[in-house]
Amino acid sequence: MKENATRERIVQAADKLFYERGYEATSFADIADAVTLSRGNFYHHFKTKDAILLAVIALRKANTAAMLDHWAGAAHEPAERIRSFIRILIVNRAQIRLYGCPVGTLCGELAKLGHPAQAEASGLFTLFRDWLRREFVRLGRESDADALAMHVLARSQGIATLASAFHDDRFIDQETAGLSAWLDGLVASQPSPSTHS
Amino acid sequence: MKENATRERIVQAADKLFYERGYEATSFADIADAVTLSRGNFYHHFKTKDAILLAVIALRKANTAAMLDHWAGAAHEPAERIRSFIRILIVNRAQIRLYGCPVGTLCGELAKLGHPAQAEASGLFTLFRDWLRREFVRLGRESDADALAMHVLARSQGIATLASAFHDDRFIDQETAGLSAWLDGLVASQPSPSTHS
DNA sequence: GTCTATACCTGGATAGAC
DNA sequence: GTCTATCCAGGTATAGAC
Predict the structure, then answer these.
(1) Is the Cβ–Cβ distance between B99 and B105 less than 8 Å?
(2) In sequence order, which ranges of B46-189 are alpha helices (DSSP H)?
(3) Of A152, B26, B47, B133, which one has the fewest beta carbons inside 10 Å?
(4) What is the pTM of this model?
């Protein structure tokens, strides 16, 4: 049990550091320091750095799935659920301003490294994509639900990238408002959205 | 003169490597190998890695300015010029699919590293932003020209990020079409666009 | 202006005592 | 399960011969 607790502390510290500094720029020593653990002991829990990365991605997937479930529980209407997604940009604006989107920046870094965990990381996007697609289907957009989901994902990624590049979080409010308005227009144009879950 | 030629070859090789592998992941040895130069000789041209980064950013700025001038020369109508910007996503789709946008990914990496050249790098975005803003002003959108410029930039960044994460360039065609349609709608809603340059 | 050689450091990873 | 000590590869940077 104690073993699991230490392992979890390592993964959480790595999650934070990978987000704030990037995967490659984070050393074993950095993570070990963050959880006040010796470098040697570290290898008792994780053999390689790649193993830590996979554990971090798994943690993020679990957290993401829980968040999506929470949103679905908090709102029944598909448009309101999609708005929950858009709102994460605002809720996390302080972090995004500094480090961008955790998913987008990780995927970008792994792509350049040619890292084998690329597919695992983009699976994080897939969680959001599939969830959004389902809500667009419920909105009555069966035919283009996936394209709409990707559109929302892309817009949010662009917002995060520019907010970080310009260190400007007022821009986040501006653009999320535009994205919300786009969604309103979409809903208004739908004659009779299906409301069954 | 020979000195300048070697220097330029170094900067061009670094430009390519920083894009494809990232700044931190690219070593002096990588760049030296690419231009078949000894490591020692390398320092005759650049004292530090940061100096190379600044030279690469300066090169990109010059190339960007030349490209923007070219677009302005090739089309007079503001909407057509803005479409030239949107088209780079399609023209460079093979690269974007693999490595994302050179500007967005560099800014993202430098932000996480807390690198002093962050402002220099985001200046690349500013070149596009100011150029687009001017074209939106010419379209008659003085009041929100900057917001529109940032909107176009954000959309294109999102497209690049997701195309890279999913290694999907069909998505680029899909989303750029949507962005072009948005621009068409904007132009159509303008009663009398100013056409003086 | 170009090379070789090398100093110095950091980071990933292992061995083995406690 | 935790620690210290250590190895080795690779990266930045310098010195100095040619």
Answers:
(1) yes
(2) 49-74, 78-91, 93-99, 102-113, 118-138, 145-166, 170-189
(3) B47
(4) 0.95
* Distance between CA atoms of residues B182 and B192, nearest Å: 18
Q: State the nucleotide closest to B36 in CA–C1' terms.
A: C2
Of B98, B147, B154, the CB nearest to A158: B154
Q: What angle do CA B22, B26, B31 make, to 5 degrees?
A: 125
Distance between first and last Cα of chain A = 39
Residues in contact with A66: Cβ distance below 8 Å, sequence separation at least 6, in sequence order: none
Among chain A residues, the shortest Cα distance to B18 is held by: A112
Cα atoms in the 13 Å half-sphere on the side-chain side of B123:
15
Point out the residue nearest to C10 (C-alpha to C1').
Answer: A27
In tens, the pLDDT along B24-79 reads: 999 999 999 999 998 888 899 999 999 999 999 999 999 999 999 999 999 999 99
Tokens found for residue B172 = 């680029």
Distance CA A195, CA B186 (A): 33
**Residue in A25, A111, A153 closest to B98 by CB:** A111
| Length of chain B counted residue by residue | 197
DSSP B194: -
CATH superfamily of domain region B53-189: Tetracycline Repressor, domain 2 (1.10.357.10)
Contact A103, A125 (CB under 8 A): yes
Q: Which of B161, B105, B100 is nearest to A155 (CA)?
A: B161
| Residue B21 contacts strand D, CB under 7 A | no
Q: Which contiguous run of DSSP H or E holds residue A112?
A: helix A102-113
- Show the tokens assigned to B13: 């090789």
Instruction: In whole angstroms, give the CA distance from residue B34 to residue B16.
Output: 10
